């Protein structure tokens, strides 16, 4: 085996799915694998490959991808690549065609989104039939995968995502942390309650805002400040109409002075240092990357009791609340905001859980074992 892999992501968007290949490329290199990339010309994905140190093969459009099969096969042959890894279901058309034309190739697919409807028609049976291994990023998505995909159970494996915990270790001294809090508009002595992620429907910002309003009403003497972390424009991955709706609701509730929008930030590990509590109120996370990032930073985390988040958080490492229940969210925030010792205890346990179960090194080691096994390893 050549220990070379081509990651295919023909997406013009920018989110966790699109970020994944470039996130793992450095760790693949550390573990002896050479990564190659296939992306749309001019896309953020293509740019991310370059930022990770590789020059991707590019296609002009997704619609003409199948016509480029010969060019891609020639590239694979010239580079000695015999493993392909797809990240969007639509890209499997090209991946399956490549395997059909060159059966020695091994095809892997990660379901980053969590399938929502059965895919067992003739086309999907052909396409998924070419997949060596399908990776589900949580047990919640794996159960849906088992019901939806035309694959035997042994070819669908749960493979949790991972992060490098090192960047999330606190490094700011007290003056630097105080300066960052001031820049975010957090008053001295206030409990900073953050919500990181794309500002799009489904991410739960609405229930978080309602919960903060209830917190203000129920605990008028409690000093807190809300921090919404995420891009404000479509170019930054957010829904501009949704952002406008959030601003309107904050205004209606009279919380303009108590909730700040940071805009897109590249320094999330440092922003976590300015917060006491991190919230992830998404309705149906397929995994919950922001959850484990906040856990690695040693933060007290409140997450939605839905999707895959309960696989990451428990009563020893954080708190869970129903994604549509603002009163439950307000109660969880009140408990944590009023107890610094509890926040510290949960944060320490959360950091240890990430170091034990959710590191990028462990994720890539499991991934490369699958790449290397010609028959496909069985079990979890």
TrEMBL record:
Keywords: Glycosyltransferase, Transferase
Name of a matching Pfam family: Glyco_transf_4
Span of domain Glycosyl transferase family: 179-353
Gene3D superfamilies referenced in this protein's UniProt entry, alphabetically: Glycogen Phosphorylase B
Transmembrane segments: none
GO molecular function, one term: glycosyltransferase activity
Signal peptide (from-to): none
EC number: 2.4.-.-
Domain Glycosyltransferase subfamily 4-like N-terminal: 14-165
Family per similarity comment: Belongs to the glycosyltransferase group 1 family. Glycosyltransferase 4 subfamily.
Name the record gives this protein: Glycosyltransferase family 4 protein
Species for this entry: Halomonas alkalicola
């Amino acid at each position: 085996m050549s220990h070379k892999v081509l990651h295919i992501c023909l997406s013009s968007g920018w989110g966790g799915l699109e970020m994944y290949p470039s996130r793992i490329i450095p760790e693949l290199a550390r573990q002896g694998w050479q990564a190659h990339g296939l992306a749309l010309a001019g896309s953020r994905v293509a740019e991310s490959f370059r930022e990770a140190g590789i020059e991707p093969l590019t296609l002009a459009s997704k619609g003409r991808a199948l016509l480029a099969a010969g060019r891609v096969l020639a590239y694979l042959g010239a580079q000695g690549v015999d493993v392909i890894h797809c990240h969007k279901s639509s890209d499997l058309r090209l991946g399956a065609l490549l395997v059909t034309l060159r059966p020695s190739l091994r095809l892997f697919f990660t379901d980053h989104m969590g399938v929502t409807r059965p895919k067992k028609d003739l086309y999907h049976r052909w396409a998924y039939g070419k997949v060596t291994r399908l990776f589900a990023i949580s047990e919640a998505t794996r159960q849906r995968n088992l019901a939806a995909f035309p694959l035997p159970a042994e070819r669908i494996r749960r493979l949790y995502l991972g992060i490098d915990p090192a960047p999330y270790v606190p490094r700011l001294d007290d003056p630097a942390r105080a300066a960052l809090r001031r820049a975010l508009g957090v008053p001295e002595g206030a409990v900073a309650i953050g919500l990181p992620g794309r500002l799009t429907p489904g991410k739960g910002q609405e229930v978080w805002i309602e919960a903060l309003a209830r917190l203000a009403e129920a605990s008028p003497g409690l000093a807190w400040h809300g921090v919404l972390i995420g891009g404000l424009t479509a170019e930054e991955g957010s829904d501009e109409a949704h952002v406008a709706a959030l601003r309107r609701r904050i205004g209606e509730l009279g919380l303009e002075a108590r909730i700040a929008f940071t805009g897109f930030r590249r320094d999330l590990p440092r922003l976590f240092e300015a917060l006491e509590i991190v919230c992830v109120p998404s309705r149906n996370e397929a995994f919950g990357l922001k959850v484990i990032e906040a856990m690695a930073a040693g933060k007290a985390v409140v997450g939605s009791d839905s999707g895959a988040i309960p696989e990451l958080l428990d009563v020893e490492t954080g708190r869970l609340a129903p994604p549509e229940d603002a009163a439950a969210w307000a109660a969880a925030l009140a408990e944590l905001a009023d107890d610094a010792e509890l926040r510290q205890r949960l944060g320490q346990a959360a950091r240890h859980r990430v170091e034990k179960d959710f590191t990028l090194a462990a994720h890539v080691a499991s991934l490369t074992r699958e790449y290397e096994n010609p028959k496909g390893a069985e079990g979890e």
